[in-house]
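Prompt: I keep going back and forth on a fold encoding question. Comparing notes only helps if you start from a blank page. Show me how you would write down a chain together with its backbone fold. Please set it down just below, with no commentary around it:
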Amino acid sequence: MSKIDEYIAKRSQQSTEFAKAYKEENQQLQVAVEVRNLRDKLGMSQREFAKMVGKPQSTIARIESGKMNVSINVLNEIADATNQKLTVKFEPVTA
């Protein structure tokens, strides 16, 4: 476990608010990385990608920066427009 992982685990045990905020931020960043990876794989600019999925470029920028809490509906729209399968899975929490 890295020092940052240890710090996060310790802070999460001490504060439920911290744990909740970290969990939400981590989820948004995971979505951001996946959307950016998909766009890169398609070799598209944000503007081109946004046009393809029917969203403003600013929306794609907010998603990719982790500043937007993206709904499943928006993710489904992105998946449909890019001929991808959206998968949601539950995994056990590791301490």
Summary: The mean pLDDT is 93.
